[in-house]
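Quick review question:
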């Protein structure tokens, strides 16, 4: 089925795409974020950043909305809403950058930004105090830019909420799940307007639903038994590995 929907891709390319979907679902279920941070760098290797962006939306939408509905009552709305507004306003700018930049440049940017974010989160840095409106709006703008460029709007939010001293893993996960559910609906319309969300993207997503759902299921159950330390370490490790593997630096070695 994958070979039919993705003509021209080799068995290795299809394996990379399936593995990226499974690993992304595992991370998303475990942490509440990170699907795009895992999927986008790896999928861009085989189908390019623009096609991968539309595919991310189609794969995640049926799962993001129910997860957001369950998490909304535990989310901290005074933080979620300012971030969502700022991210929505910045999203078209990120999409314009995605379309304008060439494929290899985008791959370097994606991998570099992800590696930098993981380094910051794993360094032990913590934000102390209650975030004000200016800080929330700034993080929201970064989220919108990264969402438009690579559907990685959760990355600045993960740094923001995982780095917050007062937030435990349950509050962090609820905030992220709620934000993604709302932002997915909004970004879908903007992606469609820009010609990125197409019927072909929907067809490409269909054979990947089961793979993503399986990863999501395993990750969600892993979250229930994981400790706070394990939760953070696993999230950082998986995201770091996917970004490292997808660096254009290795193209010459693997003959791409």
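Suggested answer, residue by residue:
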């Amino acid at each position: 089925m994958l070979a039919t929907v993705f003509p021209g891709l080799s068995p290795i390319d299809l394996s990379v795409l399936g593995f990226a979907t499974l690993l992304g679902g595992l991370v998303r279920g475990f942490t509440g974020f990170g699907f795009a941070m895992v999927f986008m760098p790896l999928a861009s290797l085989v189908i390019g950043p623009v096609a991968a962006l539309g595919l991310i939306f189609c794969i995640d939408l049926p799962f993001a909305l129910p997860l957001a509905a369950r998490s909304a009552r535990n989310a901290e709305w005074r933080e979620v809403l300012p971030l969502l507004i700022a991210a929505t306003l910045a999203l078209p700018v990120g999409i314009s950058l995605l379309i304008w930049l060439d494929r290899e440049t985008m791959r370097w940017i994606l991998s570099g930004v992800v590696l930098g974010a993981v380094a910051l989160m794993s360094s032990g840095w913590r934000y102390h105090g209650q975030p004000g409106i200016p800080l929330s709006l700034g993080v929201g703008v970064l989220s919108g830019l990264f969402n438009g460029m690579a559907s990685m709007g959760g990355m600045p939010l993960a740094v923001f909420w995982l780095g917050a001293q007062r937030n435990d893993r349950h509050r962090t996960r609820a905030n992220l799940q709620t934000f993604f559910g709302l932002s997915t609906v909004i970004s879908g319309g903007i992606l469609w307007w820009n010609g990125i969300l197409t019927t072909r993207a929907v067809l490409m997503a269909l054979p990947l639903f089961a793979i993503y759902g399986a990863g999501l299921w395993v990750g969600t159950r892993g979250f229930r038994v994981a400790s706070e330390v394990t939760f953070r370490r696993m999230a950082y490790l998986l995201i770091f590995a996917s970004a490292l593997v997808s660096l254009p630096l290795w193209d010459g070695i693997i003959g791409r």
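Why it works: The longest helix spans residues 169-193. The chain has a mean pLDDT of 77.
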